[in-house]
Automatic annotation (TrEMBL):
Pfam families in alphabetical order: GGDEF
Organism, scientific name: Devosia oryziradicis
Protein name: Sensor domain-containing diguanylate cyclase
Domain GGDEF: 310-441
InterPro entries: Biofilm_reg_signaling, GGDEF_dom, Nucleotide_cyclase, PAS-assoc_C, PAS-like_dom_sf, Rev_trsase/Diguanyl_cyclase
Cross-referenced PROSITE patterns: GGDEF, PAC
Record domain PAC: where: 230-281
Annotated PANTHER family: BIOFILM ARCHITECTURE MAINTENANCE PROTEIN MBAA, DIGUANYLATE CYCLASE DGCP
Length: 441
């Protein structure tokens, strides 16, 4: 027995080879995520023991300590502590014979919050899948000696749930012969259905809004017909009525070219989706007024140069004497005036291609190409008339006015159209303000 134990013990060379393989996988993960370095460490009562390191950067011990203690992955888009600016750390729970592990990702360059969260989500998914693969090998080895298949299946599901907890992933499968479903706890939790409840496709489909259901069914049918894979992000409504976003992946298992099982993962990406939507909103919209911001306006106007869009006219709107309102009554009153201006513009410009705030008290309106010239001129005067109405701001009744410059699009570049509208706006101001003018070529 002693000689057998010695023969089966891992040799230093074997351990070194294993560490090298893990390091190579870490480097591939770094390359995939575009980060400079990564470290995978075993967690023990004594601290962290590095298993493998990729890249030439060194993580900050204080951040690794925070990540180790955190209940959720620790993601810092910008540490403000050069030389390392970005950090993400996540813990993979251990098993009886395998310690918990900490994966750290780091880079000297900061990331946007959305990008940092996305990197962490992908890394967490990769970590969970690696653990699932490891546990699958353990289960397959145990399958040779465990006679009770029911006990083995329960163990498989428990291990899968523990492995996927960090990335909020659940495993699912559907037997195509009878449409029977098998879910791990992660999927039950995602749909807010009590664990171990018997589930059917009808019960699951009832949680999909119509558009999500159509997209999912189309992707699933295509994969089954072609024995291929699919992946898409979908909205669901849980049995408790909560709206969530889910990343669904699936693969078809076939026999002799005929699909017989579909299986894959379902991951709760609600926080990631909300963050992405919020980041996109901040990039494209003015927070104070809710109108499109200057960045979105410039992007839409530039469509003239690419030929992807045509517009009938551009109106530039400038509040008269807005600085005096701010100086006299304060910025809170000024902000209310801006919001009221935005509301009135939207009210006046129903059907416009875009209404945007492009500066402190400057607004722009892009009109559709099929709008007659006279309608554009009438709209400009209508804006002037609407802005004259008294405005209530912070309990004060104020009188505001606006000047409007109009440029009809008859060809040329986006820059030329903006210059023409700007010229018309200055003509309106020179005429005494509270009026509109049109650019005359």
């Amino acid at each position: 027995m002693r000689s057998l134990a010695v023969a089966n013990a891992p040799t230093p060379a074997a351990e070194a080879s294993k560490d090298l393989a893990v390091g190579q996988r870490l480097q591939r993960l770094c390359d995939l995520l575009g980060v400079a370095g990564a470290r995978l460490s075993n967690i023990s009562a004594d601290g962290l023991t590095a298993i493998a390191v990729a890249g030439d950067q060194t993580p900050v011990p204080a951040l690794e300590a925070r990540a180790r203690a955190a209940a959720q992955p620790l993601v810092i888009a910008d540490t403000d502590q050069p030389p390392m600016r970005f950090y993400a750390g996540m813990v993979m729970p251990g098993e009886a014979d395998h310690p918990s592990q900490l994966l750290s990702l780091f880079d000297p360059r900061p990331r946007s919050q959305m990008m940092a969260t996305t990197i962490a989500a992908v890394a967490g998914e990769a970590l969970a899948m690696a653990a699932i693969a490891r546990q699958r090998r353990v289960i397959e080895a145990q399958n040779k000696t465990i006679a009770d298949f029911t006990a083995l299946e329960e163990q498989r599901r428990t291990l899968f749930d523990r492995a996927s907890a960090t990335a909020r992933i659940g495993i699912w499968q559907c037997n195509l012969s009878d449409d029977s479903l098998l879910w791990t706890n992660g999927v039950y939790d995602l749909f807010e259905i009590p664990r171990n409840t018997p589930v059917t496709r009808e019960l699951a489909l009832a949680c999909y809004p119509e558009l999500s259901r159509q997209r999912m069914e189309a992707a699933r049918a295509h994969a089954i017909a072609n024995c291929s894979d699919f992946a898409l992000d979908l909205e669901i409504i849980t049995v408790k009525g909560n709206r969530r976003w889910m990343r669904l992946t699936g693969a078809v298992e076939s026999r002799d070219g005929v699909a017989h099982r579909v299986f894959g993962m379902k991951q709760d990406i609600t926080e990631e989706k909300l963050l992405a939507d919020r980041t996109r909103y901040l990039a494209e919209f003015d927070v104070m007024t809710g109108l499109a911001n200057r960045s979105q306006f410039q992007a839409r106007l530039a469509e003239l140069d690419s030929g992807s869009a045509q517009f009938g006219a551009l109106l530039l709107v400038d509040l008269d004497g807005f600085k005096q309102i701010n100086d006299t009554h304060g910025h809170a009153v000024g902000d209310d005036c801006l919001r009221e201006t935005a509301r009135r513009l939207v009210e006046c410009c129903i059907g416009a291609a875009l209404v945007a705030r492009i500066g402190g008290d400057e607004f722009a309106v892009l009109l559709k190409a099929d709008l007659p010239r006279q309608d554009g001129l009438a709209l400009a005067q209508g804006i002037v008339d609407t802005m004259r109405r008294p405005a209530l701001a912070q309990g004060r009744t104020l009188r505001i006015s606006a000047s409007v410059g109009v440029a009809q699009y008859g060809g040329g570049s986006a820059e030329e159209l903006f210059h023409q509208a700007d010229t018309a706006l200055y003509a309106a101001k020179a005429a005494g303000r509270d009026t509109s003018r049109s650019f005359a070529a």
